[in-house]
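Hey, quick one: can you model this chain's 3D structure?
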Amino acid sequence: MKIFDYRAAIFYVKGHRNMKFTRKDLPPDQMKRANITTCLTVTMAYVFYILIMLTSDRTTLEKIIFVSFYVIWYALTAIFVAKNIYERKAELFIAVGFCIGFGIISYLQNPTVMMLIFPVLLSLSVYLNEFLIMWGAGATLVFIITKMAQILVNNPADKAEQLNTVFLVCICLIMCVFGGCKAIRRLIEFSNEETNAVKVKAEKQLQVAKEVETIVNDVDAQFTQVRKDLSQISSTIDNTQIAIGIIANGADSSATQTQTQSEKTNEIQERLEHTNQTAAGALETTEKLRGVIETGKNESDELARQSVIVDQSTEQISQTIEKLVEHVGKVSGITDAILNISSQTNLLALNASIEAARAGDAGKGFAVVAEEIRQLAEMTKVSTEQITQIMNELTAITKDTQTELKNAVDSIDVQREKVKTVHESFITVEEDVKSLVGDMTTVSDEVSAVLSANEVIVDGISTLSGITQEISASTSASRTDMDGLHDSVSNFSTAVDHTFEALENLKAIAAIDEE
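Sure thing. Here's the predicted structure for all 515 residues.
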């Protein structure tokens, strides 16, 4: 191997050794600091060289020449190093430049000056370049041999002392080179060990990063599914809120309709009670009429005194009774209508109970039943008015009959022959009145039955109204709960989104570590 083949002697430290000499590549920042450190040491050496030259026994001209040479040479070295402070060229220029200066001063001065090579060689170890140390030692060894030859040729008076000094410098040089190379090797080994440790840690961190990335990917997938589920839950809650809103509106509407139906049913109840009272009054009036007829029959004997008047009165009574019979027939028809209405009302009451049990549709069917009840109530009202009118007419006719009977009584002495006929007529009227009393009793009973059935309907509507109000209140509470649930789900979804973003950031960091 050639001594000055610099590139052939370089050893690159990348995990293994492939040359005899070792060196470590320094990054630009470390190279800069190494160049500065070596420059400071070389500067101090140049200063000592100049001081030694100035204190030597050389002539003034020689001193000026050598000092100027050192200053210029140092300035050139400093300029070159400043321009290439981050590069390896500065390292070589410092070493070569100092060796040239060292060779000149070692040739011109006492061998003791050669001791200044040692701090410079030590400062070169900062480059962690074993070849550079060996190169500097080789150059120094050449200068030592040259100096020894000079001493032997010149044969000075202190020849032995100078040779001892040169020998001492040589021994120190060998020890310096040996120690420097060993130090460089150990420093490089330490650096490699540290690098390997860092590499192992980096590999462990990379493995951890991969595991973290795997976990993050799993959690990311789970959070993605959670976000989808939250979206579906939120959509379901929105739909549920809409449905609850519809149910609440329907419940409110049903409650309003139920309240209206309850009011109408109460109105029907009042009218049925009025009809019952009217029927009771008609029955009482008929009973009174029956008593009047009984009185007229008892007094019929007096009609014999006035036969003419009795005849006329009898004729009028006959006409009156015919009208009474006709009206009684009408009352019977009305009674049939009331019975029919009672029957339909009972059926409708049953339907209303069934519809009330099906309150799930909020009373649609009940509205139909309520409408039928309203129509039947209207028919009952008309029938009641007809009964009232007939009862009034019957009362008027009865009064006319009473008047005619009075005239008949006044004329009974004149028309005794007609007493028998009048008596028979009164018997007929009495029987008809009895029949009318029975019919009116039946009417009163049926009206009472309808009234009882309507009371059941009123109770059912009241119960339905209460249930509807409870449903409305429960629906409102459910709407409030759903609103709170919707807010909770929204807050949880926001937290999941933040966590998802943090996982994405962690995933990105793990990817960077892996790179």
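One thing worth noting: Residues 255-483 form one domain.
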